[in-house]
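During the reporting period the student researcher (J.K.) took over the structure-prediction task from the postdoctoral fellow and processed the backlog of single-chain submissions. One of the processed entries is reproduced below for the supervisory committee.
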Amino acid sequence: MKTKMFTAAFLLLWFALPGFAQSSGLNGPSSVGAELDGDGLTDPQFRSNFPKNIAPGWFAWKDRLAENGFRFSVDYLTLGQSSDSNVGNGRAGGGIARFYGAWQATDNGSLTFKVENRHAYGTVAPQFLGLNGGALSITGTAFNDNGTMLTNLFWTQRAADGGWTLQVGQIDVTDFVDVYGLVSPYTGFQNLAFNTNPAINAPNPGLGIAGGIKLGANFYAVASVADANADPSSPDFDVFDHGDLFKSLEIGYTSGFDRIYFDNVHLTLWHADAADDGSRAEDYGAAFSAAWFIDNQWMPFVRAGWAKGTAALYERSFSTGIGYYGRNTDLAGLGLNWAEARGVPGTQFTTELFYRYSISPNFQITPSVQFINNPLTSAQSGFAVLGLRARVVF
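J.K. obtained the following structure tokens:
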């Protein structure tokens, strides 16, 4: 049965209608491609040239390599959070060091890579502060203490006319599954409620295959099959032995394929096999997302998800909010989330407000505040989480 599902997904990617744009839906805001390209909204009147002004030779060397088809960046992100919860530690801190890039090996083929080290500064990493504080909430998405990981190492092949895109190798499905313009935990919201849908049991980066096609002038489809048991800190080919898979299919609408995650409405269906060792039950669900970029400044969004609820964080989730893009690539965001979890009574409400202050295109500081009302795993009425994130790119 699993083999048939894998084959069906593979045939879908190869034989569906042609026309998927080269700027494909496989490059979401948190992907390597998007990190290298930027958001396309850079205002030339930036506040500073840091860190380019302290290492001009380094950036000039990078530019020369890019002219020959090899682009890369090194960045470091840090996040500190403090909670007034009367449960748990109350403080968390962590950092992420990343080396990522892409080599344009042929006219229509490229190799993408990303190696990162995620570490905590103390006993609690920001990703777990909400859980530690008595809420069913991931307050610092991606800022965990997983150590060194290979999160990307895949080949991308595109049709000569941009008709379809195929990726094979070590992939991260959260780069393209149910994404929208504010999805990245490195540049946008920090709470998982506003990142990849918390009602999707997305696996860790691992071996997989993903592809996208264009269905007419404005519609598209993206599908993936990936290792449901992946461990990027110890990448392997075990999926060929155990066969436990995560599968997704997304059908969406966009105003144009150069704005696929700015103007986007889509429906995502997904399924995750049960682990053979019994550590994870079968899970499946659906997600809906609608976001539209108005006047290249305002991005209102509505997102919802439902899951069987055995392994995903939430069984039901509904989020809404808005982002505002200011000059110098500044970004403000406000999000509201309502969620329920299987087997846990009650409804949890989450609010997040952040402002990304861009000192330069390569140096950003983002203060944020989150409030979790009626936390599902403690008797508190609610608690706040203050955060400060910084990112520098070399």
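The committee noted the following: The chain has one domain: 2-393.
J.K. will present the remaining backlog at the next meeting.
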